[in-house]
Amino acid sequence: MPDTPARRVLVTGGTGTLGRHVVTTLARRGGAALRVLSRRERPPDLPTPVEWSRADLLSDALEPALRDIHAVLHLASAKGAGDPDVGAARRLLAAAIDAGVRHLVFVSIIGCDRIPLPFYGSKVRIEAAVRASGVPWSIVRVAQFHSLVDRLVRAAAALPVPTPIVADLRFQPVDEREVAERLVEIALGALLGDAPEIAGPEVATLGELAATWLSVTGRPATLVPVSVDALGSGDPAIPSPAPWARAVLEGYRAGWNTPRAECTRGRIRFGEWLAEQKKVAPA
Ligand SMILES: NC(=O)c1ccc[n+]([C@@H]2O[C@H](COP(=O)([O-])OP(=O)(O)OC[C@H]3O[C@@H](n4cnc5c(N)ncnc54)[C@H](OP(=O)(O)O)[C@@H]3O)[C@@H](O)[C@H]2O)c1
Questions:
Q1: Is 43's C-beta closer than 6 angstroms to any atom of ligand 1?
Q2: Residues with Cβ within 8 Å of residue 219, at least 6 apart in sequence
Q3: Which of 22, 187, 240, 255 is the most exposed place for a label (fewest CB within 10 A)?
Q4: Domain residue spans of the chain
């Protein structure tokens, strides 16, 4: 008789930036069967032991995806009108209760309860739904990924004119692979409730991160550092944010998106991550 794995883990968002690393980490580590939930077709090159459940969290029956599942790593997310992530999470939680799931790990964002971004509000509402659901849970708040900071700076640097960049925002970005490793440990371990947050090795301003980006990529862009205080000062070259957007920027400047207490700290710095990307896909 074939060995029946004791545990089976469902990863929602297993095709995403973070989810891809979670799937690779779980598959490499073994010790649990693995199922990915996605709206897409199963990729032809996916290793055979990885199970694939094609479903949309917003509309499809989720019972097949949750059958025989011990733990769920809920990473799926899509920005959009009408709070889609909250609806998706509620449907997933209801299905997890019916299926007798023993551990649901929800990935949230550090500072989501303090920085007034609408997307962060969704995270707060999902956290509350998870806590109230009756499914045994761990909630892990994570800092911005290196890939997100890369996209932010890349977008500003792509413009063919000198471009202002709000240099005094603070980040503690982290390598998605390190987040994936920790999430897999959590999913296969004991319930943590509110787990220690996960962030990178160091806090840096966006100005410092942009300087690192320019130096590692060697791109000839001109980024003009401006302070949050300079926004809306009347200089036509500097944008004037709406009051809510200013409050968001103030939150990042205050570092509310960085851990407040003891956290799990990655080791890979933004510059090291960037240099590695450059080797893999030269600019
Ligand atoms: N990016 C960051 O810096 C950061 C920082 C902290 C926390 N996080 C959180 O970490 C999680 C993963 O982020 P990410 O950047 O890896 O996300 P991502 O690359 O945007 O991937 C999103 C994933 O969600 C899935 N998805 C979206 N809507 C779905 C639906 N209706 N039904 C089923 N699947 C759906 C997509 O799967 P298919 O397209 O295959 O269906 C995709 O795999 C998110 O919760 C995010 O908020 C991100």
A1: no
A2: 157, 213, 283
A3: 240
A4: 8-145+174-200+258-267
Ligand 1 contact, 96 CB (< 6 A): no
Strand partners, 225: 165
The pairing of beta strand 51-54 with beta strand 33-38: parallel
pLDDT attached to residue 1: 43
Q: Domain 8-145+174-200+258-267 maps to which CATH number in 2.60.40.10, 3.40.50.300, 3.40.50.720, 3.40.50.1980?
A: 3.40.50.720
Token pair recorded at residue 26: 């779980």
Residue 236, classified by CB atoms within 10 Å of its CB into exposed (0-12), middle (13-18) or buried (19+), is exposed
Is this prediction's pTM over 0.90? Answer: yes
Nearest 10 degrees: Cα torsion 228, 234, 235, 236:
110
Q: Is the CB of 97 under 6 A from ligand 1?
A: no
Residue 198 in contact with residue 142, Cβ under 8 Å? yes
Residue-wise pLDDT tens digits, 221-249? 789 999 999 888 777 777 788 889 999 99
Beta carbons within 8 Å of 50's beta carbon, 6+ residues apart: 23, 27, 34, 35, 36
Distance CA 187, CA 198 (A): 15
The preferred substitution site among 25, 36, 75, 152 for testing ligand 1, maximizing ligand atoms within 8 Å of CB, is 75
Digit-coded pLDDT (tens) for 131-180: 999 999 999 999 999 999 999 999 999 998 889 999 999 999 999 999 99
